[in-house]
Design a protein that fits this description.
By secondary structure, this protein is α+β, with helices and mostly antiparallel strands. The chain is built from eight helices and four strands, in the order ααβαααβαβαβα.
Length: 253
């Protein structure tokens, strides 16, 4: 059958995987079989990439290697808390977040943070509990599988666009199979620990990590569900030439 007319037998299931994907922050210790992980990665590899470069490299961490990475990065994170000047030794390979937040992104970020802390009963100013919650990143939120994603440094910024589509494919394929994920930029500052331990070369940079496993349905934190802006907020319909003074397309129709 031609790829052009291959049917999607159940579009509702595709939509459900997209709409029910979210960041899980508490996992069960239930093992995830290797064939299942391989199947998820196989499906995800159909993500598009410029000139079909397929720039992604994936490291799957389980067992002793996963636990050793958790130990080393957790120790480094706690050391920075005791001695903040050590943070200068841990730098991200690229700026994931802006150096200065502006609206509307600042308000969304604050709403996200305080909604999560509020759900967990963490009050403003409770730095100890905030730190403890953030620190759970470095245990993959107890997920039995940790994924690390790297990119050859020779590649351009466009490869990060390709990578985003690949990562989304992983998360959707996992969700369709009853698993959950949490993409984690929190690992990025600790690439000097992560990359040698997973066997990555000096020519690779860390893009992000990801927790993969079965969600703990009893964990309160997994009730956290982030909102999305309605379509009309982020969409401009441009059906005639022309622009407003601020450079945005003129609304027509």
């Amino acid at each position: 059958m031609s790829q052009l007319n291959a049917p999607i037998a159940d579009p509702a299931s595709v939509d459900a995987a997209i709409e029910r994907r979210y960041s899980v922050r508490a996992f069960l210790p239930t093992p995830v079989p290797r064939p299942l992980i391989e199947d998820i990665l196989r499906v995800a590899s159909r993500a598009p990439s410029g000139t079909n470069a397929q720039p992604w490299k994936v490291y799957v961490l389980q067992g002793a290697v996963r636990d050793e990475l958790v130990r080393q990065v957790s120790d480094a994170h706690e050391a920075i808390r005791r001695r903040p000047e050590l943070a200068a030794e841990y730098r991200e390979a690229y700026d994931y977040y802006p150096r200065q937040w502006v609206e509307p992104y600042l308000s969304r970020r604050r709403h996200n943070g305080w909604s999560l802390y509020g759900l967990l009963g963490i009050e403003r100013g409770d730095k100890d509990r905030m730190h403890a919650q953030h620190h759970r990143n470095y245990g993959f939120f107890d997920a039995p599988v940790g994924l690390m994603f790297t990119l050859d440094r020779v590649m351009g910024q466009g490869s990060l666009v390709d990578y985003g589509m690949f990562l989304q494919n992983i998360m959707l394929a996992a969700r369709a199979r009853g698993l959950h994920t949490c993409a984690q930029g929190a690992w990025n500052p600790f690439s000097r620990i992560v990359l040698p331990l997973i066997g990555a070369s000096e020519q690779e940079m860390l893009v992000c990590g990801m927790a993969l496993g079965y969600a703990d349905e009893s964990a309160r934190v997994n009730a956290f569900w982030t909102p999305r802006e309605p379509v009309e907020v982020f969409t401009r319909w441009v059906d005639q030439p022309g622009a407003t003074r601020d450079g945005e397309a003129s609304p027509q129709g």
